[in-house]
Amino acid sequence: xxxxxxxxxxxxxxxxxxxxxxxxxxxxxxxxxxxxxxxxxxxxxxxxxxxxxxxxxxxxxxxxxxxxxxxxxxxxxxxxxxxxxxxxxxxxxxxxxxxxxxxxxxxxxxxxxxxxxxxxxxxxxxxxxxxxxxxxxxxxxxxxxxxxxxxxxxxxxxxxxxxxxxxxxxxxxxxxxxxxxxxxxxxxxxxxxxxxxxxxxxxxxxxxxxxxxxxxxxxxxxxxxxxxxxxxxxxxxxxxxxxxxxxxxxxxxxxxxxxxxxxxxxxxxxxxxxxxxxxxxxxxxxxxxxxxxxxxxxxxxxxxxxxxxxxxxxxxxxxxxxxxxxxxxxxxxxxxxxxxxxxxxxxxxxxxxxxxxxxxxxxxxxxxxxxxxxxxxxxxxxxxxxxxxxxxxxxxxxxxxxxxxxxxxxxxxxxxxxxxxxxxxxxxxxxxxxxxxxxxxxxxxxxxxxxxxxxxxxxxxxxxxxxxxxxxxxxxxxxxxxxxxxxxxxxxxxxxxxxxxxxxxxxxxxxxxxxxxxxxxxxxxxxxxxxxxxxxxxxxxxxxxxxxxxxxxxxxxxxxxxxxxxxxxxxxxxxxxxxxxxxxxxxxxxxxxxxxxxx
Length: 599
Hints:
alpha+beta; DNA primase DNAg catalytic core, N-terminal domain; 25 helices; globular; Dna Topoisomerase Vi A Subunit, Chain: A, domain 2
């Protein structure tokens, strides 16, 4: 059997593959997935690749092969690992080599690639040693009693805490630094692993001190970094993560994936939550296909990772407006990956760990089983939160629901939700259907890719009802009306500031075409052409007060910063958070200086 090249890592030698095959025990490997019973020289059990009630899965431990007489799945030990762990052949060899202590030889490595591989191996080793040190400090040191008590009070048992490698960092400033150097790791390696950081005076000290540590591992169980929770009331921030580095990349990591990927594969679905303790509590309750995004919105990289193991993802995340919009932003990526996204309607203000601590495991399972389509959930949440007693409130709700309906495509679910929206808003279903159809033609967009606030403008030029996109369009119209001041205004905005991507595209176009904004526009972008025509008409109908363009521009930037503050506030990026707060304060001051109420 030939070994394919791994990207940048060279070819695993044929001799190494045979050594791994000889060293690996087939029964030990298969027993992780299947309850086996001896039948003569063979072993049998229920097939892990299809549902069955009578055993048809057979294992030959001598030849290290398997075969299912039901679904015809079969192969050698490498294929079994590749299929059950959702990995390629080289990684299956590596997993078995690590499990059975075989050092791999590689062919075709250039010197730089070999040096990079060895460096990464050193960083993995340093992190694994740190994980063991922190775990020992939690369980074996009297000073950690407070941490142990806190974890007990959260309802977390020692068994699950040890399985996830939870530990405790001592209060000393250099405990890990000293231990790491004694173990022959350089300051550069410890810093690259995110275990120490540089001080203001040029020295280095431990990054984690007096905090409970949650090891963050990749799908193979290798430690990439840590999440750390402070215990004292004045700990700021409450949680900090390892910094982004050579191994740890938050956007492409899911907490608990190493222990959850098997259960996810077997269940065909994953449950995504927000925090470390949520994952621990769910695994403890037997809901072991749970992983966490660690307090941030789910990312395209995380969705692609989950797609390797399942085709259904249930989001049990914060379901406030910002949280739902984050989910909607992920919908397009999920669709392209063939993933079905569902939402478990968590009670407001309750996280999974809290629900399970009060005996709510069965209730959580019900919520997962009853999880709704993402768009349906969002629309119903909008309707529940909206003020529907007045025409103005119903208009606002219509403006938020139309883009979501348009994004559902021409499906029976959309047709049913369209009628539900019309009924709740006391509106003509035909009117709602027309708005949805026009929005779909113009581009069905989700938050930050497009506004939930605005219903599609009608051909008659009927104004957008929601404040933010209406302000953006008014800004563009003023720039058209006053090209001199408009050129300065457009030069000071970024297209990403607009909640309506169509307005962002229009801003980019207008920067170079203010003299004749509705002429020569791209023929392959009808929505842009339509908007430009409306902007020209609006510019002809209203005078522009002195300074209005700058005020409008500042409010657009202010709204964008508010969005970013919500997003960054869910992470531990304090540097970015402070910078965003500084920019917002400066804009608020400038608006106040113009006698304008911020917002």
